Amino acid sequence: MPADIARLIQDIETLPDLRRFGRVTAVLGLLVEVGGIEKELSVGGRCVVEARDGRRLPCEVVGFRQSRALLMPFGSLDGVGLGCRAVVADGLPSVFPTNAWLGRVINALGEPVDGKGPLPKGPQGVPVRNSPPPAHRRERVGAKLDLGIRAVNTFLTCCRGQRMGIFAGSGVGKSSVMSMLARFSAAEVAVIGLIGERGRELQEFITEDLGEEGLARSVVVCATSDESPLMRRQAAYLTLAVAEHFRDQGRDVLCMMDSVTRFAMAQREIGLSAGEPPTTKGYPPTVFAELPRLLERAGPGLHGSGSITGLFTVLVEGDDHNEPIADAVRGILDGHIVLERQIGERGRYPAINILRSVSRTMPGCNTPKENELVGIARRLLASYDNMAEMIRLGAYRRGTDPQVDEAIHFQPALEAFLKQGKREATDLATGYAQLAQIFGIQWP
Fold it and tell me: Among its keywords, does the record have Ion transport (predicted)?
């Protein structure tokens, strides 16, 4: 039987025998109010609104008000008016990934957007809004994961199943760091969520940053900034659902999301439209409830399954690393990588501030010799940073403090070590060897 006919038969078999529908009673802003089927629906359920131009608009139930269901659309409300039919969709949304999804680019609804034909459906569905594995049954984080960036591998070592945040203001190099991680990491599978990104950057990321080799082991989920808030939020959930599928196959998955802040902004639009009260900086309470539900889905799996190593970017507003979303995410994750504008302005990329960044699996994941080497480098970086202003002004006199003198001596070599080209990869072993060479320490 040809594959197209088999796929058509599979789709026909999923069609419901009974269609239940209500009518649109009001349209206000981003919300559609529907009556007649409120007892058939629940929060998170789906409806399809039939617009007057014949378009079928998928919507999600976000709440109820005065015996009416409140729906939010996945697309434009053009053509939707009073009396339009709203058909109930059965069940909560699931996604059916397979290995054939590797190398593909999909939207927030799991539909292909790369022009390579339809996506095959796997036999086992994964709920889009899945729950994290039970905490008492999860495995511990695994061995070190080579991410290909010297500064991260040596000073901020990441382990399999760890969750790290990349915190930076706009234009400081988050996307460049993400592209290096996607290209050079040693993970078996990469699932990349581009949430609220500029539309022009998608092709750049796929062709230039990922390349054919990187794309072949990746699934890219994209929702651009012009799409509805529901699509942007759904893209984040779908990214984790696809990663969970490969994790349950026993694979070590690298899940990257750019960015969590735009997920939070999408949830803010949804919450405020549904009538939630604004709290900190206009974010409603559901934002801070949804963040841990999303981020906790990454991490080690159950015994016998793989792991999801999560790398999530956070766009800090006004370079304020203590703003509400950054503060909430930092408390959930297992470490944070801080990109600093001043370092980037000096021409050192990636602009990682080593002293302000933390990996919570260190020093436990390192050998004593590795910890000693990293400790020496951190001590010298801290000594130089404490006196940096006086050194630049010429107010420090050499010989005043032997430790500062030593830091000044090694600073150019350490700066060169932390600087890395976008196309340059350094594995874990080479990073430690290069750092030891700076201090004249025999390695290993």
Answer: yes
Cis preceding linkage at 444, omega within 30: yes
The beta-strand segments (E) located in 263-403 are 299-300, 307-315, 335-338, 358-359
Beta bridge partners of 31: 28
Per DSSP, the residues of 111-129 read: -B-SSS-PPPPPSS-EETT
Tens digits of per-residue pLDDT, 185-240?
A: 998 999 999 999 887 888 888 888 788 888 889 999 999 999 999 999 999 999 99
Burial class (CB in 10 A: 0-12, 13-18, 19+), 13: exposed
State the virtual CA torsion across 256, 262, 266, 268 in degrees, nearest 10.
120
**CB burial of residue 90 (10 Å; 0-12, 13-18, 19+):** middle
Tokens 């999801």 -> residue: 308
Q: Give me the DSSP letters along 155-179.
A: HS--BTT-EEEEEE-TTSSHHHHHH
C-alpha to C-alpha distance for 59 and 232, rounded to whole angstroms: 13
Residues 6+ apart with CB under 8 A from 219: 97, 101, 102, 103, 104, 106, 189, 190, 191, 192, 242
Predicted TM-score of the model (pTM): 0.90
Residue type, 120: P
Determine whether 175 is exposed, middle or buried from the number of CB atoms within 10 Å of its CB (0-12, 13-18, 19+). Answer: buried
Cβ atoms of residues 252 and 160 within 8 Å: yes
Task: For residue range 258-275, list pLDDT tens digits in order.
Answer: 889 999 999 999 999 888
E strand map for 169-316: 189-197, 218-224, 252-258, 299-300, 307-315
> What are the structure tokens assigned to 78, written together?
């053009």
Helices (H) and strands (E) in the chain, counts: 13, 17
- Alpha carbon dihedral 140, 143, 148, 152, in 10-degree steps, equals 60
